[in-house]
Amino acid sequence: MDVFDMKQRSILVGTVLVASALTIFGILMLRQPTLNSPGLSTSGNREHNSNSSLPTLSRQEHESGVTHVLVTGGAGYIGSHAALRLLNDSHRVTILDNLSRGNIGAVKVLEKLFPKPGRLQFIYADLGDPRAVNKIFAENAFDAVIHFAAVAYVGESTLDPLRYYHNITSNTLVVLEAMASHGVKRLIYSSTCATYGEPKKMPITEDTPQLPINPYGKAKKMAEDIIRDFSKNSDMAVVILRYFNVIGSDPEGRLGEAPRPELREHGRISGACFDAASGITTGLKVRGTDYNTPDGTCIRDYIDVNDLIDAHVKALANAESRQVKTYNVGTGRGKSVKEFVEACKIATGADIKVKYLDRRPGDYAEVYSDPSKIRQELNWTAQYTDLQESLKIAWRWRKSHTNGYGPPTDEH
Predict the structure, then answer these.
(1) Which H, E and C letters describe 183-239, residue by residue?
(2) Which residues form the signal peptide (predicted)?
């Protein structure tokens, strides 16, 4: 009986151990992120596969003479233009994007332009998932990060502020922690003139007090503060670029701006003008005509996306260890919304109907830059300063891509 009891006990213990092991394994598998959650997928010059499971990648080593740049938000409007320029300059590029605002179509364009294996990698992931981000850094030998990924609409930020603090401030912290853990020493941070709020004096210099008046600007300023605090005890090389209102597109017509239809209400004025010119909307809504400006509408500094990307490239080349450099990126000249609309009418050849409404919450009357510092230190000057010409180039892409990066549709 004693021997029998011992055998039974051994069988019971073995069964419990096997069951426990299977349970733990099941829990671990359930916690693995997939593409149907904010996890990870990869495509190196291949089609994006939305049904792939989490891949196991071999550690990629640094390549002598080649800078491997992680571009967060690289499927977006500005990020995709940055990836194009970096690839043209013979850098190696990894795009990380969760496609909540970006376009997989832009990535596919880049993959066709640069089909050589190892030049371009696309990873579907969410910066809000620290575990996935850490895995990406562990499996890739990045030399630098250009951090574009962010929601970026002033009006939307006033309606959903918590989303902006999570997406901008918290996610920047995740990127910094991953960089620190894996020894990535160069960061170019995409910031905004919205951190200045509504300054009393124009033009805006880098020393203008940062007093943001909307959650978008506040979240960006918080991220800047985190970067500076971290850099005090780090040998990281950081450049913060505060840029103004971005317009334009690739002059060769390879890339453009294709915002999601549901975001039209919050999007850039250029997109709104093009929607009106193409008949997607019945007209253009201009919010605010009682500002303290010559014609009553807001004044902004419109910077062409090609100039903006050139500033990022120069920042990447000139970032210095143990320093945080900050630059305004703008033309130094302001244009009113009414002037912008007139330029858009000429660029599109359309008689755009304009409806004037009350002010948009969180907006400010006048903002334009003093780009003296970036000109003196990085030898950067805006080259695409003809507003009408920038709009004409962007309109050319928009007309030939009526459905954005999707399949062509009939003209309206």
Answers:
(1) CCCEEEEEEEHHHHECCCCCCECCCCCCECCCHHHHHHHHHHHHHHHHHCCCCCEEE
(2) none
Least confident residue range of 35-39, 55-59, 357-361, 369-373:
35-39
In the numeric block, the tokens 């916690």 are attached to 31
Cα radius of gyration (the chain): 24
Identified catalytic residue from 216, 364, 384, 405: 216
Contact 70, 94 (CB under 8 A): yes
pLDDT in the model for residue 23: 47
Name the 3-class secondary structure at 306.
helix
Question: Cα separation of 313 and 215, whole Å?
Answer: 28
pLDDT of residue 62: 79
Residue that has been written with the tokens 């300054």 in this structure? 199
d(CA 108, CA 305) in angstroms, rounded, equals 20
Q: pTM for the full model?
A: 0.86
The mean of the pLDDT values for the chain is: 88
Sequence-ordered alpha helix ranges (H) in 239-304: 269-277
Lowest average pLDDT, out of 10-14, 114-118, 390-394, goes to 10-14
Q: Is 77 annotated in the active site? A: no
Neighbour tally for 115: CB within 10 Å? 10
State the Cα–Cα distance between residues 390 and 305, nearest whole angstrom.
9
> How far does CA 309 lie from the centroid of its chain?
12
Helices (H), 89-146: 104-113, 130-139
